[in-house]
Specification:
Length: about 180
């Protein structure tokens, strides 16, 4: 079923050049854009600094979890198995889980857990679009981006449970600059 849904989404690729360009741009620039927006929160109010710090920690933790998973799970990419047509350069690592989805959802869920709902919804919308773009351009299965979303959400939850706002380390970190 994962392959069938992935193929269905990717079969839209190549139909409308404008959509192809938008999806390629999302897959390549979505995460750097999200990181830049998170970084801009550093110069906002203290609650936004804490949210930016938590998002950064969740981003890093999520990617670290992915590296551990990649050592154990060796899933070929969908273009390697003939499920999709690739629109971007091939990747050198395994397919599951998606680092892009992990990073995007780590940021979105971090802001949701910090009670910043409008920002969380905006980040969530971008996270969904970035994740779908990874399937559209043929580099991931839908299950890969779903697994990445789960890893990102888990990382954000772990950071929320362990990194308390206002503790000594948090005050030090958020007082920088």
């Amino acid at each position: 079923m994962d392959a069938a849904i992935t193929h269905c989404i990717n079969s839209l690729a190549g139909q409308v050049p404008l959509v192809d360009g938008a999806m390629i741009a999302l897959t390549q620039a979505g995460i750097p854009l999200m990181v830049a927006i998170v970084a801009l929160h550093w110069w906002g109010r203290d609650d936004r600094r804490h949210a930016a710090l938590c998002a950064g920690l969740a981003f890093l933790l999520g990617l670290a979890i992915n590296q551990a998973l990649l050592l154990e799970i060796h899933r070929l990419r969908p273009y390697e198995t003939g499920v999709t047509r690739l629109l971007i350069a091939p990747s050198a690592d395994w397919s599951f889980p998606s680092d892009h989805a992990t990073a995007a959802f780590a940021i979105a869920v971090s802001f949701a857990l910090q009670a910043l709902p409008r920002r969380a919804l905006a980040f969530l919308a971008v996270a969904v679009l970035v994740s779908l773009s990874r399937v559209y351009v043929g580099t991931h299965y839908l299950g890969d981006v779903s697994g990445g979303a789960a890893t990102g959400a888990l990382a954000a939850l772990l950071v929320r449970m362990t990194w308390r706002e206002g503790n000594r380390l948090d005050r030090l970190a958020t007082s920088l600059l």
